[in-house]
Amino acid sequence: MANSEYEYVKREFEFDRRLPASNWIVVRIDGCHFHRFSKIHAFEKPNDENALRLMNACATSMLEKFPDIVFAYGVSDEYSFVFQENTELYQRNERLILSSCSSWFTSFYMMKWKEYFPSKELVQPPKFEAEVLCYPKPKIVCDYLSWRQAECHNRNQYNTCFWMLVKSGEDENKANEILKGTLSKDKNELLFQRFQMNYNNEPAMFRKGSCTYRQKIDITQRIKVNFQ
């Protein structure tokens, strides 16, 4: 289209937003209509360990694909990827960053499905939407991650109580009514009194989410040389 009479189509109607410099970029990928997807594929409730490990595998692949990702945090069907402050990925083009991250994550999820669910057919493709956030200070990035982890705790504790009640015979409306207005300590007490369950003994991946990051390893080897 370059140097043609039609070039105005790109010049006048396509808009690219450049993300601000000297900001940490966070790309949050979130499952779209995943409640329905998990129901169709009969995920375990409240947590399906295989589904969570598949999400973690996708996150690891993201770090391999995009070297500028320095840290990732995931819970349920959501993952947040922190890009280093000075990244020049796609010249910080928001549209290209979002489309590349969401398409790569989704493609890898589908490609690895059989590895984590060998006895289940993928009967409907997953959909992941993405949004980008920009934070000027590391402290704000840390606060963002702390917020997501707090959400993980609140959501998982509620869901654990909810599904234990449902599995014990309560209908879903009744379970929601029982939990309405309860505090964290009330939920812990409910689990212990009714189901002899200590919430703190649940797997950390369920209670706290998952972190994915690179770890530097010293690969220096000592070589003995015989100079005889």
TrEMBL record:
Domain of life: Eukaryota
Subcellular location: Nucleus
Keywords: GTP-binding, Magnesium, Metal-binding, Nucleotide-binding, Nucleotidyltransferase, Nucleus, Transferase, tRNA processing
GO cellular component: nucleoplasm
GO biological process: tRNA modification
GO MF, one annotated term: magnesium ion binding
Primary location group: nucleus
Binding-site positions, Mg(2+) 2: 30, 77
Known cofactor(s): Mg(2+)
Thg1 C-terminal domain span: 140-221
Catalytic activity: a 5'-end ribonucleotide-tRNA(His) + GTP + ATP + H2O = a 5'-end phospho-guanosine-ribonucleotide-tRNA(His) + AMP + 2 diphosphate + H(+)
Leader sequence residues: none
Enzyme class label: transferase
Annotated Mg(2+) 1 binding sites: 30-31, 77
PANTHER family in the record: TRNA(HIS) GUANYLYLTRANSFERASE-RELATED
Protein name: tRNA(His) guanylyltransferase
